[in-house]
Amino acid sequence: MQExxxxxxxxxxxxxTFAKAGINRNLATHLLEMAEKxxxxxxxxxxxxxxxxxxxxxxxxxLWIDGEATMKNLDKFLREIWLECCGHLSKFHGVxxxxxxxxxxxxxxxxxxxxxxxxxxxxxxxxxxxxPIKADKxxxxxxxxxxxxxxxxxxxxxxxxxxxxxxxxYEEEDVFCDKCAEKHAKKCEDFADYASMPVVNSxxxxxxxxxxxxxxxxxxxxxVNKK
Length: 227
Fold this sequence. Notes:
The protein is of the alpha+beta class.
């Protein structure tokens, strides 16, 4: 699969698109403006990305989390947008699920999270800043990377819609448009039998039985070629 994917996301507040490196600065500006108008509680701007010890990736979530939300609430959100496939166990390293965000989070804090202790997906949760206001709900999705420009490895022209879970990361041809997927199925028995999986907007793509989330499904699909 192609490397060095462009990563950008739209701002929940203004609708503008920013690169991964700049989106949270923009979101923080909006939250600061809100905090100047009223002070009614505590909330946090949080980014979630793949665990950095495994290298950087283009996937990210920017979340506005209310202080009353629990780590279990965050666990449920991460499962529903990025992870859930077979009811695997999960954990925040060093933090219990019953803890409230306001009792755990502080600016600059990083917490590692693991879903599925077998074929694990490892994430890092980073607290960007905190604000003296309540969030609109327990967890608000402020931004997420747009579907990545993953193109068919055979024709190079069409966005990929399917991956081969067996070939992914091991063969040059591992992602396919629907037409080229038929070609791959003729030479890869595993793909034809069980290894065909959908392209989804998640770092768990191709792992275990993961086929997509139930939150923000519009941006959980394949890249749309606008050229």
